[in-house]
Batch of 2 targets.
Target 1
Amino acid sequence: MAPDTFSAAERAAMKAAAAEARTAAKRAKLADKAAAERQDCVDAIAALPDEDRSIVERLHEVVTAAGPDLAPRTWYGMPAYARDGKVVCFVQPASKFGVRYVTLGFQDTAALDDGDLWPTSYAVTAVDDRVGVRVAELVRRAMG
């Protein structure tokens, strides 16, 4: 593969995923692995630039309230929410890949199926009450 196949942001995401895997292996014996993963998620959010942090903090609040069975963690260095060890949804900060909006994405484990075509990611530029209600609905639906 050519050295320029992946962007710097993609290489950083892969390195973050590898670091997460190493940390998870070390934590396998911890009594409170979930608390450590939750703290990783909170720390990742706190480290975001101001423009992203306010949106991602609010999304974190909405997702954790709407999906109390989802376990916050990081995934490729991004805040994510898992059930039974599998990521259901994640938040990609705009700064991660230099785009103009935060992305709320859902993995195939999310029960969002709607016929033959349905959205699995959403652009988020602000989280007001209306957006919060919509995100909460999506998370509850994703949980099945």
Note: Residues 8-27 form the longest helix (20 residues).
Target 2
Amino acid sequence: MNAPFSIEQLRDQFPALHAQDNVTYLDSAATTQLPQVVIDTLTTYYQHLNANVHRGSHRLTEHATIAYENARKIVQQFIHATSSDEIIWTRGTTEAINLIANTYGRHHLRPNDEILVSELEHHANLVPWQLIAEQTGAKVVKIPMTPECTLDMDAFYQRLSTRTKIVAVAHITNVTGTRNPIEELIAAAHNVGAIAVIDGAQAIAHENINVRTLDADFYVFSGHKMYSPAGIGVLYGKKALLDDLPPWHGGGKMVEHVSFEGTTFADVPARFEAGTPNVAGALGLASAIHWLQSQDHDAITRHIAQLRQKALEGLATIDDLRIIGLQPNSSVISFVIDGIHHQDIAMLLDQQNIAVRAGHHCAHPMLDALGLSGTVRLSLAAYNNRQDIETFINALRKACSLL
């Protein structure tokens, strides 16, 4: 049973929040801070278990391999995949989508096939599809958004056809926190014989993910959005799809036998994990999952919602401030202030030790559709408190008075 929620006790687990520079951290949609237990996991690996995996005959590599594969099973259970063979380690969401594009996309796409991609996407879920479309003769088709920064579902159904082979959408978007109706999108894709690729980077820390219930063909996410290290990510794929795909990267570990006459490749997941992996990152991700599962998820959700409401009330007191695409229950708030450049706001906030994100958020098409060059984005995580919001609002008022 999880312990009762206490924001003070939770914050105490994050050493970065108590550093001497005393930064008010409101940029968790970009990267979350790490709890001490995850940091300890990384330290323990490098102090006591540092070895390569799946090769060598000494006890260090044996123990490292057991821990590494156990981490894969922990991820499988966390997202309710059928088998740990459906879990592919990657460097993050970006590499995972590139892997899908360069294996499934290259293997299946033909001239005039269509890839439906939403206008709300991070570049990581657009550029790989543009590249593979150029190489295969397929076409990337935009699913436009509404003025409220939600997906235009009427337009989606108008564009969906038997030519559609892939539907690629974010579970939750990174600019406004829009929660796309992925259940409906996945079912609609399957109805025309297409597959669905879901970018779960912004959802993984906030929703309980069950890939079998969703019936997602591919679901991808990054560790550094969910309280674990950077440089580790996950590609979930249905086993039948993965078994049918050729490798992408070549090298060690992804082979059965190599000769100059030819190479036979390993089964999944090893087929897609060439070279020395990020063992520490995998262990850190598994540790972060254990940490998340030890928390009261519902209490954290309520806590973030209360902070969001407090932030909205404070922002409402700022002259000429417009919130962009405000979404219900989102942990992300993007805004602009008429007559003031977003980077100037972020710079003056930084000078007051407030960390937010400003710019186009790697989502040029969305910002272009809104007629904006960028926004200021604050994003909340479990460890934020009311003082963070009060400090931010006071600093924003000061910044506006200077500008």
Note: The two ends are 50 Å apart (CA to CA).
